[in-house]
Amino acid sequence: MIAKLAKTCTLRISPEKLNFILSDKLASGGVSMWCELEQENIFSEFQMEGVSAENNAIYLELTSENLSRALKTAQNARALKIKLTNKQFPCLTVSVELQLSSSSSSRIVTHDIPIKVIPRRLWKDLQEPSVPNSDVSIYLPALKTMKSVVEKMKNISNQLVIEANLNGELNLKIETELVCVTTHFKDLGNPLLPSESVSQSRHPEDMAEVHIDIRKLLQFLAGQQVTPTKAVCNIVSNRTVHFDLLLEDVSLQYFIPALS
């Protein structure tokens, strides 16, 4: 999933959590991502030592596809070990123990993934993004349906308007000089907003909208391999759209900025 969302990303390792981070404030027009996994849900044994007791974390930059490819070889593995190594250059070494089908013996396959260790002075740019107060928060329709709709719209326009209200209605719109196409989703439901005052002052029928780059939305939708247990879209009018997904043991936040 991460490899589809970000070519390179930051892996943050801390005693309790692993985070995959994309903070492309400028490089990719401001798309950012924060993906979180609890290490105890994945590893039977986990040892890490950060920079210091108060900064107990390690930040690495890596090519997502390299890690994805290495882990794919471990699908039927007896054991998998990931460690930080130095082989003339820093690496994330993935050791996969594979059972040989013909015998009880096994073989070890090793992948050395080149990484960059990110110095502490740059950590401040890689913190969990703060979620702005949204004007409308709404549950998303089936992501597969949404993806097929957006794929068709992309053939007509590069820009898309995503709008929603507190009545459980979500619209995807494209407008060109020649054509206007809107797809309506109804009865999606709205999660309760933390600041209830926002929704009380807002008429349930009023739409909050944001104009975004359709390719960025499509990239997000194409990255979804698993049906999420929770999928919420938060719209800050004319500023940003924030997707908040829960997938089994993984939480994913993805931000797409409005087009200026």
Automatic annotation (TrEMBL):
InterPro entries per record: HUS1, HUS1/Mec3
BP GO annotations: double-strand break repair via homologous recombination; meiotic DNA integrity checkpoint signaling; mitotic DNA replication checkpoint signaling; mitotic intra-S DNA damage checkpoint signaling; nucleotide-excision repair; response to radiation; telomere maintenance
Pfam family, any one: Hus1
Keyword Nucleus part of the UniProt annotation: yes
Keywords in alphabetical order: Cytoplasm, DNA damage, Nucleus
Subcellular locations according to the entry: Cytoplasm, Cytosol; Nucleus
One GO cellular component term noted in the UniProt record for this chain: cytosol
Primary localization class, coarse: cytoplasm
Function field: Component of the 9-1-1 cell-cycle checkpoint response complex that plays a major role in DNA repair. The 9-1-1 complex is recruited to DNA lesion upon damage by the RAD17-replication factor C (RFC) clamp loader complex. Acts then as a sliding clamp platform on DNA for several proteins involved in long-patch base excision repair (LP-BER).
Family named by the database record: Belongs to the HUS1 family.
Subunit structure: Component of the toroidal 9-1-1 (RAD9-RAD1-HUS1) complex, composed of RAD9A, RAD1 and HUS1. The 9-1-1 complex associates with LIG1, POLB, FEN1, RAD17, HDAC1, RPA1 and RPA2. The 9-1-1 complex associates with the RAD17-RFC complex. HUS1 interacts with POLB, HDAC1, FEN1, PCNA and RAD9B. HUS1 does not interact with RAD17. Interacts with DNAJC7.
Name of the protein in its database record: Checkpoint protein
Lineage: Eukaryota, Metazoa, Chordata, Craniata, Vertebrata
